[in-house]
């Protein structure tokens, strides 16, 4: 029964995640054509992080953003960013083309991110 109550929250998280991922990938896709892929990926991640924080707070979990949550969210995303950039470089090293390398990264890192962010925003 508890899992059924969490379904709408998970659906909202997925919606926010899709929007943030589109923003991240869109910026990366454009920028990787003119600058280093790691810089392009980082810029896309940073801008999507800001949008993701506010949408996650208000829309996904119905909580007002606070500095405490911002630091927790930032900590979760610091870990997530390191996972992203490590996986990106691993997939590039394996020979995936630059435009496609983020796809498997997202498939691995997004579920990990949900667990970390949920911990920050859900009351204990």
From TrEMBL:
InterPro entries: EmrE-like, GtrA_CellWall_Glycosyl, GtrA_DPMS_TM. It is found in: Membrane. It holds the Pfam family GtrA_DPMS_TM. One of its GO terms (biological process) is polysaccharide biosynthetic process. Residues 12-120 form the GtrA/DPMS transmembrane domain. Keywords: Membrane, Transmembrane, Transmembrane helix. The chain crosses the membrane at residues 12-31, 43-61, 73-94, 100-121. It comes from the Bacteria. The keyword Transmembrane helix applies. The keyword Transmembrane helix applies. This is GtrA family protein. Its main location: membrane. PANTHER family: PROPHAGE BACTOPRENOL-LINKED GLUCOSE TRANSLOCASE HOMOLOG. One of its GO terms (cellular component) is plasma membrane. Belongs to the GtrA family. It comes from Bacteroides muris (ex Fokt et al. 2023). It is a multi-pass membrane protein.
